[in-house]
Amino acid sequence: MQVFKFGGASVKDAQGIRNVAGIIQQQPPKQLVVVVSAMGETTNELEKLTWAYLGREAAKDTIWQHVRARHEQVIDNLAGDNREPFEGVYELFSDVETLLAEEPEPNADKVYDQLVSFGELLSTRILNAHLNQSGLDSYWVDARRLIRTDDTYREGKVDWERTGEHITDTLADLIETSVMITQGFIGNTGEGYTTTLGRDGSDYTAAIFAYCLNAERVTIWKDVPGVLNADPKWFDETVKIDQLTYQDAIELAYYGATVIHPKTIKPLQNKNIPLYVRSFLQPQEPGTVIGHFEKHLPVPSFIFKMNQTLISLHPKDFSFIAEENLSKIFGHFAEYGVKINLMQNTAISFSVVVDHRPERLARLMPHLQENFRITYNEGLELITIRHYDEKTIDRVLVHKKLLLEQKSRYTVQLVVKDEARSPTPELTPE
Question: Which residues are annotated as a binding site?
């Protein structure tokens, strides 16, 4: 039994849907669960729709019509004269429009999950309809019926026991006769509200299904030939890594490597399920396999996180940064969902690097300012090098101003400012 996961780039248009269908049709017509993300940039567009809806902006209707039109264009291209298999897509369109006609409730994160989750529902309905129209017996299953989470909207925490029961009870017989098509990224609370597992959480969904069904393997289909030692968007001369240990994969994902979601590896490692990263553009190529191997990374690996903010906290009473202050700081960051990508402390200051998420930082800052004087820099880059040497450090610091450095035996993290951009002074919030 296998689990496949296809990302948004693989199903961005009708030709992508056909290509994915071709890969699926090369497999036996059963014992396969296919997890699919939203088409192309749909999640970003649905995020814009959410903010416009919450802000009661007239633009929400224009944004939604654009999203709907793109999906209808794909259906037009795939359906031919027979639209009946695609009726489920039009029902989802109607569900979105009903929601948009209602007054938004005050919990913005809850609203976000109810709206943004439609991206995966739409893409999987379209893929399922196309497969059935093409003669493959596939079965569409709503992941919200199967994956149970708490009510931490936008970062749902999985209830593994209940999720395992739902998945095995629902799918154990179905996968013996059909290919299952389901959604990444989404789950459901016990009260029936949709949750999401965090941006790019579809990889994690695939791992959840694999763990619960004791899969032989998981394959993540990407637009790259496998796991590379750097993102080609930021780095030339990348090298494909043929094999990765679970440990190295977890480290790379933790530090922000975009090829794998950070939560994906551990469930697979716990049951020794190998994870393959392969190219949907070159499906005949073997890609990268992640599993129990003895050798660690053969080459240095580079991870770039852009649009970072460096925040430095200084106690107003000139006390030391000790356990009591750290407890307050971490409590506030956890409460407002601001994840720390790097931290460093001295006797009287504590610095963190975080993703620049203005809406969350705006809620966090007033609480920190009660006890701390705050300075911060925006528009920074966080560069992580796994299995580094001085040559690799020098290579990434060309035309960069180094603001903070942290080294361990195998990993170095560098917070830098691109000197080619206009300088950003250190800022002190009022």
Answer: 5-8, 43, 120
Annotated binding site for ATP: 5-8
Burial of 74 (0-12, 13-18, 19+ CB in 10 A): buried
Beta bridge partners of 406: 413
In a domain, 88, yes or no: yes
Domain boundary among 215, 244, 272: 215
User: What's the predicted TM-score (pTM) here?
Assistant: 0.85
Lowest mean pLDDT among 11-20, 158-167, 315-324, 400-409: 315-324
Domain presence at residue 250: no
Mean pLDDT of the chain: 92
- Amino acid 249 reads A
List, as one string, the DSSP characters of 370-424. Answer: TTEEEEEEEEEEEEEEES--HHHHHHHTTTEEEEEEEE-SSEEEEEEEETTSPP-
What's the residue count for the chain?
A: 430
Binding residues for substrate: 43, 120
Q: How far apart are the first and last CA of the chain?
A: 58
Last residue of a domain, one of 215, 250, 270: 215
Is the separation of the CB atoms in 406 and 412 below 8 Å?
A: yes
Give 254-311 pLDDT, tens digit per residue.
787 777 887 899 999 999 999 999 999 999 999 999 999 887 777 889 999 999 999 9
Q: What CATH number does residue 135 fall under?
A: 3.40.1160.10
The reply to whether 135 falls in a domain is yes
**Looking at the domain assignment, is residue 371 inside a domain?**
yes
Q: Is 136 helix (H, G, I), strand (E, B) or coil?
A: coil
Three-class secondary structure of residue 2 per DSSP? strand
Reference 124, options 9, 3, 17; nearest CA is 17
Cα separation of 322 and 325, whole Å? Answer: 6
Same domain, 45 and 178: yes
d(CA 349, CA 172): 54
List the Cα angle 306/198/65 in 5-degree steps. Answer: 90
Per-position b or e across 379-404, b if 16+ CB within 10 A of its CB:
bbbbbbbbbbeeebbeebeeebeebb
Rounded Cα distance, 131 and 125, in Å: 10
Statement to judge: residues 177 and 321 lie in one domain: no
* Residue 324 burial (CB count, 10 A): 10
Residues 200 and 312 in one domain: no
Same domain, residue pair 22 and 148? yes
Q: Which domain holds residue 191?
A: 2-215
Q: What is the DSSP string of 308-358?
A: EEEEEEEETT-----HHHHHHHHHHHHHTT--EEEEEE-SS-EEEEEE--H
